[in-house]
Write a structure and sequence with these properties.
With 276 residues, the protein is mostly helical. It is built from twelve helices and no strands. The longest helix is centred in the last third of the chain and has 27 residues. It is globular, with a radius of gyration of 19 Å. The mean pLDDT is 88. It is a multi-pass membrane protein. InterPro entries: UppP. Its EC number is 3.6.1.27. Keywords: Antibiotic resistance, Cell membrane, Cell shape, Cell wall biogenesis/degradation, Hydrolase, Membrane, Peptidoglycan synthesis, Transmembrane, Transmembrane helix.
Length: 276
């Protein structure tokens, strides 16, 4: 690997980690097109490092929310006279949103790793796209909207989103954000509320997964690789931050089905360059 490749992969990771297009699929396809084997220990370690860059970016975007959830904010508690205080997101929402996926990932880790293959990702891209189109149709035609923003989510909705997230854990390439955003819409949360909560719960999950994987990979940090890892990390951080901010600002313009159509295109590229 050279610095140009590190920059390219960092850009791809930052672009795709938090939007529902499958970062796994993009990284496999990009490595293949660049002529690199993404299964080598060094490449796997590099992937973990640039993923950490993306996680820190999303952590910075939601830093005020995180501080408030941890009880570290000095923001005064509002007083309501003769009124029921409005719902606010709390730590229990986050726990319910991440617990199912962490449990599945822990108990089925080896089984999940055995599922990683181009064929699995190809079908996940197609299935995930159909799932997102179905969620958008359901939300517009059948759903009773009970949460217009993240603070209006119920604990039941948080748990439902967490359960839907398990699909992406068990099926590489399905997309974590795709399953959670679509799952939120199936449970009656708005597109924006689902996306916000999806991004927020990505932080503890990805830190846990990346940290665990790093325990097996730290020995690959050498004089020869540290510079490449640093470049990929920084590029991933910057790009992920820009992408998430742009996505949240244009969320009403870019519907979920648009990402689904893109996934179908990516599946066609997979079929052309990976499967054949």
């Amino acid at each position: 690997m050279n610095f140009i490749v590190a920059v390219i992969l960092g850009i791809v990771e930052g672009l795709t980690e938090f939007i529902p297009v499958s970062s796994t699929g993009h990284m496999i396809l990009t490595a293949k097109l660049l002529g690199y084997d993404d299964s080598t220990p060094e490449m796997k370690t590099f992937m973990i490092v640039i993923q950490l860059g993306a996680i820190l970016a999303i952590s910075w975007v939601y830093r005020e929310r995180i501080i408030r959830l941890l009880g570290l904010s000095k923001e005064p508690v509002p007083v309501f006279r003769n009124q029921i205080p409005p719902r606010r997101l709390d730590l229990l929402h986050v726990i319910l949103g991440i617990a199912p996926a962490l449990a599945v990932g822990f108990f089925f880790r080896d089984f999940i790793k055995s599922l990683f293959s181009p064929q699995t990702v190809l079908w996940a891209l197609l299935a995930g796209g159909i799932f997102m189109i179905a969620a958008e149709w359901f939300f517009k035609n059948k759903a009773q909207v009970t949460a217009k923003d993240m603070d209006q989510l119920t604990h039941r909705q948080a748990l439902m989103i967490g359960l839907y997230q398990c699909i992406s854990v068990l099926w590489p390439g399905f997309s974590r954000s795709g399953s959670t955003i679509a799952g939120g819409m199936f449970s009656g949360a708005s597109y924006k509320a689902s996306a916000d909560f999806s991004f927020l719960i990505a932080i503890p999950i990805m830190f846990a997964v990346s940290g665990y994987e790093m325990l097996d990979s730290y020995r690959y940090f050498t004089i020869d690789t540290i510079g490449l890892f640093a470049v990929g990390f920084i590029v991933s951080f910057i790009v992920a931050y820009i992408v998430v901010m742009a996505f949240l600002k244009s969320i009403q313009k870019i519907q979920l089905r648009h990402f689904a159509y893109y996934r179908f295109l990516l599946a066609a590229l997979f079929w052309t360059f990976i499967m054949r």
